[in-house]
Design a protein that fits this description.
The structure is a single chain. With 415 residues, the protein is α/β, with parallel strands linked by helices. The protein folds into two domains: 117 residues, Response regulator (Rossmann fold, 3-Layer(aba) Sandwich); 232 residues, P-loop containing nucleotide triphosphate hydrolases (Rossmann fold). It is 40% helix and 15% strand. It contains 16 helices and 13 strands. The strands form two sheets. Strands 8-9-7-10-6-11-12-13 form an eight-stranded mixed sheet, with helices on both faces. A five-stranded parallel sheet has the order 2-1-3-4-5, sandwiched between helices. A hairpin with a 4-residue loop joins strand 8 and strand 9.
Length: 415
């Protein structure tokens, strides 16, 4: 087809053997997307790749003068005639190039036109996340293992590098935001059945249901989940225990998977507050998560334990490394962000400032600290993007808008 990319004979992840042909070249308009593309692909693509500042017009001009790479990633943001520009690009590159596109259009018809009509391998719209890039771009290129598809809600595990690191505060803040402001169905599962504080921070009750589910998983069904989960609000629930310290908890292997399977059918997001301890329950919860989050403090001990958590093997559903949250930055005697990153040999993804009075007051009142606008709330919103949830929120918002418009134009239609 004229004006289209012919990838019928191209094989993902293979080299042509031509030394003059680069593996991957990208043309990106903005520095934020460039950073996310670089980090998202770096975890999946072994070889280094070129990134140029500029969009599709820059790509067309450049590729008229240099050999076509095996994989080309182009940015069409801000282009009113993106389809025409992509057609022009197809005329200056070799037909077997595999093209990935990013842009700012959330349009299903546009996606179909460029993937089915022009032969583009994959399209993502901004704002990007590292997980989006790793999942859709790297896997489209045949790089890395393919994560099995799991129906239902998204599971996020959050683990503090030590007790008191702030993981529970961040867990309940994320859950509150997604439930109360993004209108998602959310549950928090506190895996510390003895001294967990998630229910307390949410102003909710604990109950025997979680222990019962983990000891006798054959009892788990949707009715059991409904009875065991304690409501915080209409869309936010918590599943937590407060077992006596003299009681022995006997975990049944595989119970976590059974419980999560039921929770996925009921909730859009399942947040797991998982302690830093090598129990069978914690290992299974971490392995079952779609995304892991590690909360650390700016101390040497926290750096050591964060590195140990990062060394744990990834679960089958995880396409990128754990998100690193540096909590309490600015605490008296703490290290700077630069010192933390230098000691770890890796960047932190989200920084949460040291706001002890706000956190303490919210905890004592049984409220989420995110309710107050400020630096803490901004950090939590940044974390929603890192865990890949903001994009699904935007998609659902767009769907609701379309349904509302359809209902207005066609009063008899079902939405």
């Amino acid at each position: 087809m004229a004006g289209a990319f012919d990838t019928a004979t191209a094989t993902p992840g293979t080299a042509t053997g031509r030394p003059d042909r680069a593996q991957i070249i990208a043309f990106i308009n903005d520095p934020v997307s460039e950073r996310i593309i670089r980090e998202g692909l770096a975890e999946q693509v072994a070889e280094s790749f070129e990134i140029h500042r500029g969009g599709i017009r820059t790509a067309i001009s450049t590729l008229q003068k240099v050999p076509t790479p095996q994989v080309l990633l182009v940015d069409v943001s801000g282009e009113s005639d993106a389809l025409m520009q992509l057609a022009d690009l197809s005329e200056v590159v070799e037909p077997d190039v595999r093209v990935l596109v990013i842009g700012d259009r959330q349009d299903v018809n546009f996606y179909r036109q460029i993937t089915r009509g022009l032969g583009v391998v994959e399209y993502l719209y901004k704002p990007l996340t590292r997980e989006m890039v790793a999942t859709h771009f790297a896997l489209a290129l045949g790089r890395g293992g393919t994560a099995p598809m799991v129906q239902g809600g998204r599971v996020i595990s959050i683990t503090g590098s030590s007790g008191g690191a702030g993981a529970t505060t961040i867990t309940v803040s994320l859950a509150t935001y997604l439930a109360e402001e993004a209108n998602r169905h959310v549950i928090v599962l506190d895996a510390n059945l003895y001294t967990g504080t998630a229910a307390m921070l949410l102003g909710a009750r604990t109950g025997p249901g979680l222990r019962s589910a983990l000891e006798t998983p054959d009892r788990i069904d949707e009715l059991f989940v409904e009875r065991s989960a304690r409501p915080v609000s209409e869309r936010l629930h918590v599943l937590a225990g407060e077992e006596a310290l003299t009681e022995q908890f006997n975990y049944t292997s595989g119970a976590a998977e059974s419980l999560l399977r039921s929770l996925r059918r009921r909730y859009n997001f399942i947040f797991l507050d998982v302690p830093f301890s090598p129990s069978a329950l914690n290992r299974e919860l971490l392995a079952a998560a779609n995304q892991r989050v590690i909360v650390m403090n700016p101390t040497l001990a926290s750096i050591r334990d964060t590195l140990r958590l990062l060394a744990l093997p990834q679960g089958s559903l995880q396409v990128r490394r754990a998100v690193i949250v540096l909590d309490r930055l600015g605490m008296p005697g703490g290290l700077s962000r630069q010192q933390v990153e230098a000691a770890m040999g890796a960047p932190v993804d989200v920084v949460v400032p040291y706001v002890p009075r706000q956190i303490l007051l919210a905890g004592n009142l049984g409220q989420s600290a995110i309710q107050k606008r400020g630096a803490f709330r901004s950090s939590i919103l940044s974390l929603t993007q890192e865990i890949g949830s903001m994009h699904s929120i935007q998609e659902s918002s767009a769907t609701r808008m379309k349904k509302a418009l359809l209902s207005h134009l066609l009063p008899g239609s079902k939405t």
